[in-house]
Amino acid sequence: MMGRTLCSVSLMVVLGLVTSGWAADDKKDSETKPAPKDYKAEFKDYVVVRNNVLGKLTKVDKEKSLKIEVALTRKMNKEYEFPMLENMEVLWKNLPVELDDKGRPKKISPKDRKKSVTGPGGLKGYPAESSDLKNGQIVQLVLRQKKTKPGAKDKSENKLSVGAVYIVAEPKS
Fold it and tell me: CA-CA distances (angstroms) from residue 4 to 8, 10, 14, 113?
């Protein structure tokens, strides 16, 4: 009887050590997540001019410029073209809707909801790629301008540029 009790206790101790090792491994995995980008350091030579330019993406010239159509009034739209900065960020304003095999939207797990980051311009979003940009999308731009020294006369090189693009909505099919 004493041998069985001793065997049971030692088995519980071994199981306790093994499961605590697994928990430690889980903590290590979560600690190796990439650190959030330091946008202040990346864009230290730039200042945010506008972070709420909302419009329909009409042309994406890869690595060069974006063209958007902005509604000025109900009946009047105007098209603007902005150059892109080298380190421009692309983010989803909301997580994109994924469809299952039957064409119904998949439910978003709580784990995926926690992936939001604070991007350039102080807006929350979800990481995306430049390849996610398509004509017809509704986008929100964060426009930046290079800082100038007081009294600088040559301001021709100081154009508004796109520092970040938030994809707000996909085009209607």
Answer: 6, 10, 15, 49
* 60: enclosing H helix or E strand: strand 46-61
Instruction: Using alpha carbons only, give the angle 64, 82, 53 rounded to the nearest 5 degrees.
Output: 135
The pTM (predicted TM-score) of the whole model is 0.67
Lookup result for tokens 């069985």: 4
Interval 61-105: pLDDT, tens: 877 889 999 998 888 999 999 999 888 889 998 877 778 888 888
Amino acid letter for position 111: K
DSSP class of residue 115? T
Beta-carbon count within 10 A of 150 CB: 4
Integer Cα distance of 101 and 22 in angstroms: 35
Q: What is the pLDDT of residues 6-47, one digit of tens each?
A: 445 444 544 454 444 444 444 444 444 455 556 556 666 677
**Opening angle at CA 93, ends 122 and 61, nearest 5:** 95
List strand residue ranges (DSSP E) for 93-157, in order. 117-118, 124-127, 138-146
Partners of 46 in the beta sheet? Answer: 146
